[in-house]
Structures are given as C-alpha cells and as structure tokens.
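Hi all, long-time lurker, first post. I run a small reading group and we've been trying to get comfortable going from sequence to structure in the token notation. Rather than ask abstract questions, I figured I'd post a concrete chain and ask someone more experienced to write out its structure so we can walk through it together at our next meeting. Sequence below, copied exactly:
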Amino acid sequence: MTKSEAYKNFKEYETISDSTREDVSRIALKLLDDTFIVKAKDEDREDYLKARNLFTLLNAFFSFMDFSLYSDEEKGIMYIKTTKDTNRLHLKKLDTISLLLLRYIYDEESQKASLRSDITTTLGKLVQEIRKTDIYRNFDGKSGEFKDALRNLKRHKIIDFDGDLTSGETIITIYRTVLLVVDTKSIEELTRQILLYRRSNNEKI
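-- Answer (accepted) --
Happy to help. Here is the structure in token form:
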C-alpha cells in the first residue's frame, strides 16, 4: 500500500466511534509489541476478530511506519512485517535451535492431529530432540539459558506453556506462528538448517 492510498484509507478513522478508536490503538500497540495476534490464544481471540473487521484501517496505519499487516485466516493469525530491513527478531543460538526443533515437532505431530487441533508436545520431548542434535554436550534442559529461550519464544507467541520448566511432563502448545517464523518447505530442508549448527563449534550448557 502506498502512502497516498494509506492516507485515503485512514480517513475512515475520523468517522468511527471513540470505543472503536480505542480498539484500533490497543490492537496496533499489541501488534507492535508482539508481532502476532493468535486466534487460538484466549487473550487474543477478541482482538483477532476485531482486527479482521478493522483490517483496512489498521493496514493504513501501519503503512505510515513502513509495516504491512497480514491476515492468515487458515492459520488464525494476524501479523505485521516491516517493509524495510529493520526490527528483525534476533535470537540467540539456543533460542534458534529450540525454534527449529519446535517446527520439526510441529510438522511431525500435525500428521497425527486433525486440522483444527492444537499441536502440543512436552518439555521432555523438546529436550530429547535437542540432545539428538549433538550440538550441546550433556544437555539436560535445566539451564537458565534454556528456560530463558522458552520464555522468549512464548513472549513472541510461538509457543505457550503453563507449568514447571523443570518437569519433562510440562505441556508446550506450538502455535501456527511457527510456520511463519520458520519458513521451510520440507523436513529435509529443516534438517539441513539444524545440521549447519551441528557443524559449528559446540557449546557446553
């Protein structure tokens, strides 16, 4: 959307009610903070539905800041992407390894689940997959760095969990946002990305 088109579309803002203006402000701030609004998350569901109705207005607003707003109704995700090479998400190595393996687990589990099912795994399963890579020696999933990685991915709405991060039985929900963040076409391609990290110098956690 060009700036002139955005200006024309944003004129609608002058005609909407005060409560709708508050919705626009709240949703815009949420997207700027979190990047994603996920319909599957209870705290996002209402804003997701409102954002769908306000899509043209919100997209015009973000265009002024060189962002584009996207709606993926199949995945139930509303998200923004910068049109410039700025504001990219920078992850630490362990965050990235965890993210790649969560995508691997997502693909694996989605073959068993129905299309409408949430994809879940356990903390123990993720730790096991990290061990298999041989990237980290004696990895047991108990380090503060690993817990921080999981909290970071939760904050960015890639996953969700509500439990003890020291228990292998803790359930992790993997949201469909992982499909957008790790854009890979096949398990083979995903495996190659993981192997690139295996070839790098191992780090001890």
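A couple of things your group might point at:
The radius of gyration is 19 Å.
The longest strand covers residues 67-72.
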